[in-house]
Design goal:
Number of strands of chain B: 14
CATH superfamily of the largest domain in chain A: Beta-grasp domain
Oligomer: heterodimer
Order of helices and strands of chain B: EHEHEEEHHHHHHEEHEEEEEEEHHH
CATH class of the largest domain in chain B: Alpha Beta
Structural class of chain A: alpha+beta
Number of domains of chain A: 2
Bound molecules: flavin-adenine dinucleotide, FE2/S2 (inorganic) cluster
Helix content of chain A: 25-40%
Order of helices and strands of chain A: EEHEEEHHHH
CATH topology of the largest domain in chain B: Uridine Diphospho-n-acetylenolpyruvylglucosamine Reductase, domain 3
Number of strands of chain A: 5
CATH class of the largest domain in chain A: Alpha Beta
Structural class of chain B: alpha+beta
Strand content of chain B: 25-35%
CATH architecture of the largest domain in chain B: 2-Layer Sandwich
C-alpha cells in the first residue's frame, strides 16, 4: 500500500492505495466519482479524461500514486452548484450527445482545448478532440458545441 | 484491465533511482509518463516487481541551451517541448514530429526520454533524433556515458540503455534556420505511423545545401536515408529534382509487414513521402 494525498474537485483526500490502482478506479471506486467513465482497454477513447494540475490526461493511463501531491478535476467538479459550466451548457444546447458515454471526457478535453486556445478554428477543434472517440454523434454537434462555448464567457469556470 | 501487483518507489534523485533499480535486479521497470508502460502493464505483457517513478527528479526535466546544442532532459514532456520557444527556433523538426504524436492528453504525459527508451519502431521521435544527430546521455551507477543516435537504437524495442541504467538527457545539435517537415502516413487521425519521413533541410535561394532524413517504421529501428541526403545536395528544391533524389529512399530498409501494409507497400510509398517531406521542409 502507498499513502497518497490528492485534491479532487476542490476537496483534499488522503488514502492508502495499491500502487497498481489506476487513477480512474481511484476516482470511481474510492471517491465515488462515477461521472468519469472507462470506455476502452487501450487508452484510445478518451472517455476517462480528467484534468491533472489543469491539463487533460487519460485517467485510465495514470496510476493513482502518480497523482500524489497533485490536483485532479473531474466532470463532477466543473459546474458551480446548479449552474452548468459553459461547455456543459453548450453541449446541452447543441445536442452534442446521444448516449452520453463519451460526454464527460469530451467536455473535459474541450475545456482543456479552450483554455489553450479560446477561439479555435473548426479544424483546431477537430484536431484538439482527436483523442476522444464518439460512437454516436458523428462529431458535428460536438464541434458546434465547442464553437458555441468558445463564443461564451469561460471566465469564472474552474480551470 | 488492471496491472499485476508491484511495489512502487518515487525517488527524488537519479542516484536513488539507480540504487532502487539495482536492488530489484532485472525485475524493475522505470516509469516516465507511463503512456507506453501502463498499457503494457494493463495488458499484462509485463509484470515487474518494482516500478520506479522518475517524475519527482527535477533535474531530468526541461530544455537547456548549451551553445551549439539544446539539451533536453529525459522527463521533458511532449507538451513542454511544443511550448518551448528555443526548440521551435533551433529544432523545428522535433516540433513537427511531436505535433503528430497521439493526442493532447497523451502529449501532456508522455516524455521524450520515455519514447526514445521505449524504441517502438513506429514511434515518431526516433527517426527525428537520428536525423538531427542526437547524442544520448545514459547514466549508471558508475557514471554517465554518451551514445550517438546510430548506436542508441539497437533493434525492436532495444536500445543501448542497460537494465540498471537510465536515459538522462538527449543533446541535439542546433539546426537553426533549417526548414523541417514530418510527413506521417496514417489512415485515420490518432494512429501510429504506418510509415513516416522526418526531413530537415538547409536551403539557400532555392538550392539545397544539406539535408537530413530519418525514416519511421521502415525497419526494426529508425533509419537514415543517406543516399537521398547525398543526392539532394546542390539540387534545386523543385518537384522533379526532389522526386529523382528521393527515388532511392527505400534503399537499405527492411520494413515490417502487418495489417496496415506489407513490406513492399511500405517500400513503394516511402519515396513519395520522402519527396513530400523534403519539398515541404525546403519551403516548397
Ligand atoms: C493511444 C496512444 C497513442 C499513441 N500514439 C503514438 C504515436 O502516434 N506516435 C508515437 O511516437 N507514440 C505514440 N504513443 C506512445 C507515446 O508516445 C508514449 O508516451 C511514449 O512512447 C512513451 O513515453 P512515456 O514517457 O509515457 O514512457 P513510459 O511509458 O513511462 O516508458 C516507456 C518505456 O521506457 C522506459 N523508460 C522510460 N523512461 C526511461 C528513462 N529515462 N530511462 C530508461 N528507461 C526509461 C520504461 O521503463 C518503459 O519500458 C501513443 C500512446 C498511446 C497510449
Ligand atoms: S478509458 Fe481511458 S482512454 Fe478509453
Ligand atoms: S454520445 Fe454516444 S459515444 Fe458519444
Amino acid at each position: 500500500m502507498a499513502r497518497i494525498s490528492v485534491k479532487v474537485d476542490g476537496a483534499s483526500y488522503s488514502d492508502d492505495v495499491e500502487p497498481r490502482m489506476l487513477l480512474v478506479h481511484y476516482l470511481r471506486e474510492r471517491l465515488g466519482k462515477v461521472g468519469t467513465v472507462v470506455g476502452c482497454d487501450t487508452s484510445n477513447c478518451g472517455a476517462c479524461t480528467v484534468h491533472l494540475d489543469g491539463r487533460s490526461v487519460k485517467s485510465c493511463n495514470v496510476l493513482a500514486v502518480q497523482a500524489d501531491g497533485h490536483e485532479v478535476t473531474t466532470i463532477e467538479g466543473i459546474s458551480s452548484g446548479e449552474e452548468l459550466h459553459p461547455v456543459q451548457e453548450a453541449f446541452r444546447e447543441c445536442h452534442a450527445l446521444q448516449c452520453g458515454y463519451c460526454t464527460p471526457g469530451m467536455i473535459m478535453q474541450a475545456i482543456d482545448l479552450l483554455n489553450e486556445n479560446p477561439s479555435p478554428s473548426e479544424e483546431g477543434i477537430r484536431h484538439g478532440l482527436e483523442g476522444n472517440l464518439c460512437r454516436c454523434t458523428g462529431y458535428h454537434n460536438i464541434v458546434k458545441a465547442v464553437q458555441k462555448a468558445a463564443g461564451s464567457d469561460l471566465e469564472g469556470a474552474q480551470q | 484491465m488492471i496491472p499485476a501487483q508491484f511495489d512502487y518507489a518515487a525517488p527524488a534523485t537519479v542516484e536513488e533511482a539507480l540504487s532502487a533499480l539495482a536492488s530489484a535486479g532485472d525485475d524493475a521497470k522505470v516509469i516516465a509518463g507511463g503512456q507506453s508502460l501502463l498499457p503494457v502493464l494493463r495488458m499484462r505483457l509485463n509484470a515487474p516487481s518494482l516500478v520506479v517513478d522518475l517524475s519527482k527528479i527535477e533535474s531530468l526535466r526541461g530544455v537547456r541551451d548549451d551553445g551549439d546544442a539544446l539539451v533536453i532532459g529525459a522527463m521533458t514532456t511532449y507538451q513542454s517541448i511544443l511550448d518551448d520557444a528555443s526548440v521551435h527556433e533551433h529544432l523545428l523538426l522535433l516540433v513537427k514530429a511531436v505535433e503528430t504524436i497521439a493526442d493532447p492528453q497523451i502529449r501532456h504525459r508522455g516524455t521524450l526520454g520515455g519514447a526514445l527508451a521505449h524504441a517502438d519502431p513506429a514511434g515518431d521521435v526516433g527517426a527525428t533524433a537520428l536525423a538531427l544527430g542526437a547524442q544520448f546521455e545514459i547514466t549508471g551507477s558508475s557514471g554517465s556515458r554518451t551514445v550517438p543516435a546510430d548506436e542508441f537504437f539497437q533493434g525492436l524495442f532495444e536500445t543501448a540503455v542497460g537494465e540498471d541504467e537510465l536515459l538522462t538527457s538527449i543533446r541535439f545539435p542546433k539546426h537553426t534556420g533549417w526548414g523541417a517537415h514530418y510527413e506521417k502516413f496514417v489512415r485515420v487521425s490518432h494512429q501510429w505511423s504506418i510509415v513516416a519521413v522526418a526531413a530537415t533541410v538547409k536551403a539557400e535561394g532555392g538550392t539545397i545545401q544539406e539535408a537530413r532524413i530519418g525514416l519511421t517504421n521502415m525497419g526494426d529501428r529508425p533509419l537514415r536515408a543517406t543516399s537521398v541526403e547525398k543526392a539532394l545536395v546542390g539540387q534545386q528544391a523543385t518537384e522533379d529534382a526532389v522526386r529523382t533524389a528521393a527515388a532511392s529512399a527505400a534503399e537499405g530498409t527492411d520494413p515490417p509487414s502487418d495489417l496496415n501494409g506489407d513490406a513492399e507497400y511500405r517500400r513503394s510509398i516511402v519515396p513519395v513521402l520522402t519527396r513530400r517531406a523534403v519539398l515541404a521542409a525546403a519551403g516548397g
